[in-house]
Description:
The complex is a heterotrimer of chains A (320), B (387) and C (350). Chain A is built from 3 helices and 18 strands. Chain A is mainly β. In chain A, a hairpin with a 6-residue loop joins strand 15 and strand 16. Chain A is elongated, with a radius of gyration of 30 Å. By secondary structure, chain B is of the alpha/beta class. Chain B has 13 helices and 11 strands. Chain B has helices at residues 25-40, 89-102, 122-126, 139-155, 161-173, 188-192, 221-224, 253-266, 271-274, 287-294, 303-308, 325-328, 332-348; strands at 6-13, 49-53, 80-83, 108-116, 196-199, 201-202, 211-220, 230-239, 277-279, 361-368, 373-380. Chain B is globular. The mean pLDDT of chain B is 95. Chains in contact: A-B, A-C, B-C. Chains A and B meet through strand 1, helix 1, strand 10, strand 12 and strand 14 of A and helix 1, helix 3, helix 4 and strand 5 of B. Chain A: It holds the Pfam family OB_ChsH2_C. Chain A: This is OB-fold protein. Chain A: Residues 68-131, 223-288 form the ChsH2 C-terminal OB-fold domain.
Amino acid sequence: MVTISSEPLSAPLNVGFDYTRSLGPVLGRFATGLRGHTIAGVRGSDGRVLVPPAEYDPVTAEKLTEFVDVGTEGVVQTWSWNAQPLDGQPLSHAFAWALVKLDGADTGLLHAVDAGSPDKMSTGMRVRVRWAAEPVGSIRDIECFEPLDAEPVERQPVVGDDVTMLTTPIHLRYDHTASPEESRYLRGLAEGKLLGQRCPACDKVYIPPRGSCPTDGVPTEDEVELPDHGVVTTFCVVNVPFLGQRIKPPYVAAYILLDGADIPFLHLVLGCDAAEVRMGMRVRAQWRPRDQWGTTLENIDHFEPSGEPDAPYESYAQHL
Amino acid sequence: MGAQLAAVIGTGQTNHTAKRQDVSMAGLCREAIDRAMADAGTDWSDIDAVVLGKAPDLFEGVMMPELFLADALGATGKPLLRVHTAGSVGGSTGNVAASLVQSGVHRRVLAVAFEKQSESNAMWALSIMPPFHMPVGAGAGGYFAPHVRSYIRRSGAPNHIGAIVAAKDRRNGALNPYAHLKQPDITVESVQASPMLWDPIRYDETCPSSDGAAAVVIADEQTAKGRPAAWIHATAMRTEPTTFAGRDQVSPQAGKDAAAALWKQAGIKDPVSEVDVAEIYVPFSWFEPMWLENLGFTEEGQGWKFTEAGETAIGGRLPVNPSGGVLSSNPIGASGLLRYAEAAMQVLGRAGEHQVDGARVAVGHAYGGGSQYFSLWVVGSERPGAR
Amino acid sequence: MSEVAVVGFAQAPNVRRTPGTTNGVEMLVPVFHRLFAETGLSKQDIGFWCSGSSDYLAGRAFSFIAAVDAIGAFPPIMESHVEMDAAWALYEAWVKIRTGEAETALVYGFGKSSAGELRRIMAMQMDPYLVTPLWPDSVGVAGLQARLGIEQGLWTEADMAEVAAASRRAALSNPDAQLSGETTAEELLKQPYLADPLRAHDCAPITDGAAAIILASGDKARELSERPAWITGFEHRVDTPMLGARDLTTSPSTIAAAKAAGVDGVQVAELHAPFTHQDILLRQALGLGEEVRVNPSGGVLAGHPMFAAGLIRIGAAAAEIRAGRADKALAHATSGPLLQQNLVCVLEGR
């Protein structure tokens, strides 16, 4: 939907990936232990038992290797109440964040305590681990901690090969905003127009227009409507498939310099064999059906050869 | 007034490979750091500050990873800086670390750069397309291939030049025990027979995705004198916008300006005869001739002839990337610091099987973004001015 | 060795949400223009540029690259970037000037905190193996630190509310502030908890913003400013990332940085304390007495543009010197969970 307004356009931008983390010997041992319902710490140079274990000493930076198993009960050192949990947190109902010093450990472990309400929480209270239903070798094998008077939940440890990898899904949501100049251009596209702007300092015509001319540091201003035809300055043929790709290879990604513009933009060239695409080829936009138009350059499905004679190299050489 | 002298007294790097699943990020960094510290003969109490370089945080999915790595980097209780200048970051990390010594602020600084590409997928991270845009992007290869085509058109270079570079760098990589790709039997013909990925760039002309780290110890004159040292003769950094009307994307002005400043600072008048070896950031084979021209080693349009004549091979007039370069190992954020470290190793005479005989002056180079960030340094076996 | 001074400072209005892009261009262009107008310099006069920002704040790799457009960076510039608060970019620039390679530097920071879910994004700064998988939000984690101090008698909820009230009062004279007003601790304490023991007023607001500072050396600084704010101490340190393994009721890295920078006799301090209890914690760690004016700008509780906020503390402290309201000022910047990394910049007028 296009909203007719002078406000800059915005749209959701979701950035998500399941990261694959290799753990190395120290974190791997901790993860393997968790899956089997044991908690490993490591002894630091100052004699403290660090939980979770550190790979390198916080005082001397030396590699740490002396593992010490600690208890699965401990004491709350401090806490805060999380009334409205966010995505991905250990519990979906209200809980306390706490630093829990496990029996035998000298440092606090950050985790959730499922206490029901803040008046059930106090510094110094004792808590125990509630294990996750399906341990995989992760800090999340500890589902949370719970007060000792809670009804214990029976959960089974898992024994198997050492844990060496951890998958951490990271999914973040953003609101992506176009600049005012770009928004004007995008609204133009929704009407089938290619609107560039001229920089008041260097007189160059930019499409898309810019919030700041990259060479002059001032916004581009005077609107210039550009035709939907121009020249291929240079290009490549993308043969390689990759994660997140939205156009099926092979395809020609080309820099198109519209007639009257001073800067090319990247687009697709179809309508001929990829091997026939060449520098200097004249091309014309093939628009999608009007009912599919939005505020995007994707309204132009692709460019295809116009059949005109090629532009001489000198005419676009300064745009390479 | 003016900068104080600084020198590299130790370098270290990991065994680079596609997936270093035997270590965490901390362990990866420490492999390089521990080797650099041993090479320099220093211990933690000698280090005044740490500079970490890394390419985008999205690659590892950690926001400002230097924070969680502080203990592993030996930075706790010390100053810690995190540099990020796109692909040139490894070089910038070296330059920033050098400036901490040259300014007289610190005496000994540890510079570290890493990338653990196997935590995610760089093609994905680099091709995240914000709303409203045409989703044509296809990673770094898709970005640079059109500009390679422009170079070929502009210079009239024959098609096999890229293959010459690829075959040379991969064979060099086979001499480097740390290299990710070691292909002693690769030939120009086999490169030319490899699949075309982003026409005109072929598979064998493309850098690998690597996990790896690099570290260097940079020291002041008092520390470095009387011991093996790679003296820093010059550093330079330049930036220009990604796109602007009339931008030369084949030989960007920022690269030319950085090189001109570098040669001036180093007192070098004729780079090709005064520099003994160059470690240049060549992630796609064609960038060797392109950067030879951009850096002023050859005239414009002549870089490919220098490459074709074999002058950039070990034993040539200007060996380029005897380590195998980025084409043999590409832990992105570390790749620039690897170029810097390899340049230092050459003038220290510690490059092992890929040592260039008699190397006394070496260049390290890195670039990033859309060929818009440039970092350079010149190191020498003698103090600046002693030549 | 060059003497280096702050000779210019400008910031964008601190606002809950700008309609601008995450690359900060719309905020930076007017900031640069104001700075150039103030100093009479133009972009060609700047010897070195350095910026601070975060890709995760923007949600995309290399987000800082587009910000370079705001400069008009052609012919090419000598430039660098830190993935940190721009206070550390200023540090890099200060080092650069001291090498003699540049006489002037322009340092900028920007952040559009409103673009994403800031409380979740900040969890990305924690240990990616052991902590981030739990997605601990920044406010909840700060509550852990606040309670430790409360229960150890180092501060009270009333003390914390008084910090918030003082911030809002001070911000009345700061035209760029996001939150300001006449209020009292008593009023604020009537509000419900956001994350017990923290209330909304205990937490810096979510702010979009940008700022820039011009540095100059020696005679150049004297030429550009009647009363430059000379940097006489500039230090930063980092603490262990293991929250459970450090004393969260103090800040060893702040103490070490301050000791090295030489903060005795400061008359005014701008502290980067995103939570009220951290303001008190920092005063205690720095040993600031009653005689020291703290956060005349209102501090970050009145507006907290991520990745520019630390730089703004230095700009605000320098403004105190340059206006002749102080002869020695302290600026502090922080980064990382619960004050993990801290920077102290001491500025003096002559």
